[in-house]
């Protein structure tokens, strides 16, 4: 008798529910904080490069530490690492609250405020360097292997739902409550997320040869990624498309100076990619894109590049929102495929290191992409910057299509069953 597919399989495990709930709350909080702080920074500086520098100051510590974060995620208890990182992130939010509070902000010059914000973002990057690998490598221990693809879809969906509600509410919270009260709300959300993480039991640490030194162990993780062609190419494709095609970092420029929609419009624009992603991921729970994975990734990235070009040329707010919606919809397909690959291929004792390598590539695409966008916007303007990004995304997808035709025969669903 044929077994009926259960689209809610992963959610039937309590610890996975705690996991995705904490992920949702954390995502909402961190994105509210990111949007309101970025908008505040652009309001006091009117400099798009200041937005790009936020990405740079977060990327430097993350890239420097992520491999070591993966090393510790494979050797230490993952939940404890996550809790410690939450504590650091909450302290960073408290510092932001102090620096921008009405009772203290006038005691600082604009330059001093900028430096405090960059310092805070730097320590957020430090925390992410250890948090990211521990969080990613914890997920496979919460559901059986046959539900990895389903858990990847639901995890991405909860994250994307948070990525809708966080930015969408941020603009309105900034206008209605002000920066101070919004940051207080962010801290409360972090505390609740901490409580949900604490409901997950501690997981055993996989046996690893004690003779292996740190750098030898890290090289082993890098070697695993580069030797698996489908994994390596999936990461490369995702990295370069977002590195050049991502426009999130400079959305305050479009909201304030081009479309003239203010903080509320910025919130809608920031939420649009997440809305597109979560609606698409509802479909992936029923129709997983992991069948013919590489073909689907190339199609998705091509769609991402085309939607980015539409956004670049748009002068109408709702057309711009629609284009951003499509970027999220297309990006979500590649996210589900990549997350499934990251759960299926690595052995248990290498998940932390492999996820840290992937995390470095993702950070390069997000944070360094933000710096690239901010710098090019300052030099050439926002519209030429986005046109360049969309065109580069299409060129990268075409190049990898030519170089990787053998990957069209790869069947990820067979690997999952095995």
TrEMBL record:
Transmembrane parts of this sequence: 20-42, 48-72, 84-101, 116-138, 183-201, 230-255, 267-287, 299-319, 379-402
Keyword Flavoprotein applies: no
Keyword Membrane: yes
A Pfam family: MFS_3
Protein name in the entry: MFS transporter
Membrane topology qualifier: Multi-pass membrane protein
Keyword entries, A-Z: Cell membrane, Membrane, Transmembrane, Transmembrane helix, Transport
Classification via InterPro entries: MFS_trans_sf (IPR036259), TM_effector (IPR010290)
């Amino acid at each position: 008798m044929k077994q009926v597919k259960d689209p809610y399989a992963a959610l039937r495990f309590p610890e996975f529910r705690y996991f995705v709930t904490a992920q949702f709350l954390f995502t909402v909080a961190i994105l509210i904080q990111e949007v309101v702080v970025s908008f505040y920074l652009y309001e006091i500086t009117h400099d798009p490069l200041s937005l790009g520098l936020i990405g740079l100051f977060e990327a430097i510590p993350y890239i420097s530490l992520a491999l070591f974060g993966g090393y510790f995620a494979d050797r230490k208890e993952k939940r404890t690492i996550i809790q410690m990182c939450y504590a650091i992130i909450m302290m960073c939010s408290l510092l932001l609250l102090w620096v921008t509070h009405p009772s203290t902000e006038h005691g600082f010059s604009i330059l001093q405020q900028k430096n405090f914000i960059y310092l805070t973002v730097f320590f957020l990057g430090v925390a992410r360097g250890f948090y990211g690998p521990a969080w990613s490598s914890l997920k496979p221990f919460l559901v059986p292997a046959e539900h990895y693809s389903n858990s990847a879809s639901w995890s991405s969906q909860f994250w994307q739902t948070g990525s809708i509600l966080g930015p969408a509410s941020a603009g309105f919270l900034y206008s209605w409550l002000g920066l101070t009260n919004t940051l207080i709300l962010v801290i409360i959300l972090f505390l609740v997320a901490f409580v949900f993480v604490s409901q997950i039991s501690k997981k055993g640490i996989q046996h690893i040869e004690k003779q292996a030194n740190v750098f030898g162990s890290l090289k082993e993780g890098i070697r695993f990624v580069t030797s698996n062609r489908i994994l390596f190419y999936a990461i490369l494709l995702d990295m370069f498309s977002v590195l050049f095609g991502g426009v999130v970092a400079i959305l305050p420029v479009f909201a304030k100076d081009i479309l003239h929609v203010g903080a509320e419009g910025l919130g809608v624009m920031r939420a649009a990619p997440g809305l597109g992603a979560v609606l698409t991921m509802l479909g992936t729970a029923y129709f997983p894109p992991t069948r013919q994975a590489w073909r689907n990734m190339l199609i998705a990235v091509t769609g991402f590049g085309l939607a980015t070009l539409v956004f670049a040329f748009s002068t109408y707010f709702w057309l711009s929102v629609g284009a951003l919606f499509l970027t999220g919809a297309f990006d979500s397909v590649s996210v589900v495929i990549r997350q499934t690959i990251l759960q299926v291929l690595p052995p248990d004792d290498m998940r932390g290191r492999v996820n840290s390598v992937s995390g470095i590539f993702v950070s390069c695409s997000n944070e360094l992409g933000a710096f690239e966008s901010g710098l090019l916007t300052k030099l050439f303007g926002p519209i030429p910057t986005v046109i360049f990004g969309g065109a580069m995304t299409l060129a990268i997808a075409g190049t990898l299509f030519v170089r990787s035709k053998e990957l069209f025969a790869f069947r990820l669903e067979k690997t999952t069953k095995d």
